[in-house]
Amino acid sequence: MSPFYSILSVWKPLTTTTLLTLSTLFTAPLVTANPTCTNLRIPLTATASNEVFPIPVGLNYSNPAAVSAFVQTVLGDAGTAYPLIPTTFTGIVAARYCEPEVTIANRSDVVQLFMSGVTENNLYWFGLGYPNGYDGNEYSTVDYASKQGYPTLAIDRIGVGNSTHPDPILQQQVNLEEAVSHQLVTMLKAGTAVPGKTFNRIIFVGHSYGSVLGNAQATNHPGDISAFILTGFGVSIIPVAADLPQTVPFPATLYAPRFAGFAPGYLVTSSEAGRRAYLWGKPGSFDEGIFEKDYDDEDVVGLGELLSIDGGLKEAPASTAPVYIITGDSDDVFCLAATCGDGPSSPQAQACALFPKAETCEYFIPVGTGHMISLHYSAQTSFQKYHAFLASVGF
């Protein structure tokens, strides 16, 4: 077995159906019942210069108001340059790799790399469940991509899910997490991340904080990614800071038994009403059942991620990869207004300015949809839109 990975488990459907189609003149896709998925534990080491934030002496992590006020102070003082210190992550990135149910020759060297937002892990991309998501595959980005012939790799970012949990303040920051993503891309291209697979083209699909990491990767390593799909994304951190208190951030270790032993800098959103207002759209735009499941099963956010998020929102002057942005018109994380609007003044259009050399930058604004793009009734439309964009730019 390669020293670069280990396989935890392989799941395959019991029944496989093969059929030939004439959807293309150049290849006859091989269709199976579902994607075939493999759980991986990928060891890697990455180093970056992280910021040293002035954590108040005696900060009470169990006081949501104090934690929120500190985050607001740091994010509100964007002009402050905090000291940098070399920081290394050595550990495991847990991931789920899925072979598509449709085999299309010109997509066999492409992989969609999924990067979730805070308090979410890889299950976000499977409709909050695996092998069966909420309401089947209705909210599964992986399932939709599989039907289009794309291999996918959905990871647990460091600090969430089954990945190694580093220091949530000193290590779990944008700079080091981007370095981890860069190492992972390097391994995907070298054939050392997924057993027996080498990928020449990487499509980065991010959500929220994951999209911020994509922006950072375009800035720091412009040759890594062939196309970016950035969902729940905007250019301003002002709303992020302004609305954080309503979620009532609270130490995960004191919140639920599944987080027992976590360092106090790992937080959850402890207010159901606050999470609804912050992350979800207008009434009637989502199923109450999936909202409840998301709240009940939420993962964690490291305090360092909240403090460093503005470090990922920078112009990527050398990246030429095409960019597609999906942010709902009711996204309270990146938009303070009652509606995010449309046109050149919208957060989506402004975000395109971060990619001045992109081959193209386009955006879609699903109506009534909040921050959790893949979990609203508009999910299938969003999936269709971004895959049509990928096809239009040669993927």
UniProtKB/TrEMBL annotation:
GO MF annotation terms: hydrolase activity
A GO CC annotation given for this chain: membrane
Keywords: Hydrolase
Gene3D superfamilies referenced in this protein's UniProt entry, alphabetically: alpha/beta hydrolase
Ranges where the AB hydrolase-1 domain occurs: 139-376
Cross-referenced Pfam families: Abhydrolase_6
Source organism of the structure: Letharia lupina
InterPro entries per the UniProt record, alphabetical: AB_hydrolase_1, AB_hydrolase_fold, AB_hydrolase_sf
Annotated protein name in UniProt: AB hydrolase-1 domain-containing protein
